[in-house]
Write a structure and sequence with these properties.
3-stranded antiparallel sheet; flat; 8 helices; mainly alpha; 240 residues; Arc Repressor Mutant, subunit A
Length: 240
């Protein structure tokens, strides 16, 4: 799942490792606990698989990608002032003087991302489904619809399982079961809205395509029927 998330972010633009972690935690939110200890091994694995390439970033950037601020000061004329400037420069973090790796997705990485995004083997996991849905704009319309419908079918089954819980539960256990059922029901209703939107969009696209084809066919027929009028035959002995 982490590989798919990284490739999905790199599909948008090239990123530093720090920026990848920030987007995973802040923007997607699905992998809020991801650490550099997980991200960099994943990037190394993807790099070895030729799914991403790494290039040296700009030198002198801090961890946020902004230029590092190394103290520069004119001679102070005093020994204590010069020593203060030297100490400040000496304690500047070494990483700010080195270029950071910038990661870029390759064509092979795009193919791998498409495969990971479209596979349906683990969509029963809520986090995996949510991550795929976050990148669903990269899926074909039919693949998006299939993703939503598979998830809906799984939730309907889950709701049936929850609803068949024993009747002899006490009030507290029953309240937990009811809370779970309410949550699953809300998710099904949310998916119904998404599915309806996808179907409406697909129907509108099909209608527009059919209209465009009909217009082109009509124009071709009109052009063929309005060709040059054949010349009248001139019979022997008649004046033209």
């Amino acid at each position: 799942m982490l590989d798919m998330a990284i490739l999905g972010l790199l599909e948008e633009r090239d990123l530093h490792g720090y920026e990848i972690r920030r987007q995973l935690r802040d923007n997607l939110g699905i992998l809020a606990n991801v650490s550099f200890g997980s991200i960099y091994p994943a990037l190394t694995r993807l790099e070895k698989a030729n799914a991403v390439v790494a290039t040296a970033g700009s030198v002198g950037n801090d961890m946020d990608g902004a230029p590092s601020k190394v103290p520069h000061a004119p001679p102070t004329g005093s020994l204590s002032g010069e020593l203060a400037v030297l100490r400040a420069r000496r304690h500047t973090p070494s990483r700010s003087r080195r270029g950071k790796k910038v990661y870029r997705i390759t064509e092979l990485g795009r193919k791998l991302f498409a495969e990971l995004l479209s596979e349906g083997g683990s969509v029963d996991d809520a986090r995996s489904f949510s991550l795929r849905l976050a990148f669903a704009r990269h899926l074909a319309p039919q693949a998006r619809l299939a993703l939503l419908e598979r998830r809906r079918a799984q939730l309907v089954q889950r709701l049936a399982e929850v609803s068949s819980s024993p009747d002899d539960l006490d009030v507290y256990a029953r309240s937990v079961v009811q809370h779970t059922a309410d949550g699953v029901t809300q998710d099904i209703e949310w998916l119904d809205r998404l599915i309806a939107t996808e179907r409406a969009s697909a129907s509108a696209s099909a209608s527009a395509s059919a209209s465009s084809t009909a217009t082109a066919t009509h124009a071709a027929s009109a052009s063929a029927s309005s060709g040059p009028i054949p010349a009248l035959a001139t019979y022997e002995g008649e004046q033209p």
